[in-house]
């Protein structure tokens, strides 16, 4: 497989998995479940570029120009990065014959990024400890990242790399 083909497959898998995750999030929203506002991700990124990592409450931080667009871009960039990490760990052979377990396991493990980095930086605390319902928030994040892992698998399977 050429380097260009390899990178293209990783990009398509990352985009596909992130789309699956977004469909899941859309379903949750329609069911009345609160989900992440990607404008807050963009706001955090904007402040991060100015050297501020932690916020007591990201929603109360000063807005950043185009924060929603930046938030969505960062969301998809993260999906691409996670797809590349999965393929890097599982190897090119996984692209040829994708299996569910590595993708699902990686998706579930990827929940550590929001629970241990993003949520604390937003002021929600480690494992959402500063929120009114930490366990429920952690379980929701775990389910969403499990869906992302399923999306990694389905996207790779749909590409039918041979």
From TrEMBL:
Keywords: Membrane, Transmembrane, Transmembrane helix. InterPro entries: DUF2938. Signal peptide: none annotated. It holds the Pfam family DUF2938. The chain crosses the membrane at residues 6-24, 69-89, 101-122, 142-161. This is DUF2938 domain-containing protein. It comes from Pseudomonas urmiensis.
């Amino acid at each position: 497989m050429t380097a260009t083909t390899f990178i293209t497959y990783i990009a398509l898998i990352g985009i596909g998995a992130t789309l699956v995750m977004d469909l899941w999030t859309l379903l949750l929203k329609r069911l009345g479940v609160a989900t992440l506002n990607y404008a807050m991700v963009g706001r955090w990124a904007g402040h991060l570029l100015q050297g501020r990592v932690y916020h007591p409450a990201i929603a109360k931080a000063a807005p950043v120009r185009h924060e929603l667009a930046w938030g969505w871009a960062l969301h998809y960039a993260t999906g691409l990065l996670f797809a590349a990490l999965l393929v890097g760990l599982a190897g090119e052979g996984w692209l040829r014959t994708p299996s569910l377990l590595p993708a699902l396991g990686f998706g579930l493990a990827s929940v550590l990024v929001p629970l241990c980095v993003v949520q604390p930086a937003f002021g929600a605390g480690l494992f959402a400890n500063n929120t009114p319902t930490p366990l429920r928030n952690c379980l929701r994040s775990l389910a969403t990242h499990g869906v992302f892992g399923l999306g990694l698998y389905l996207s790779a399977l749909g590409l039918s790399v041979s």
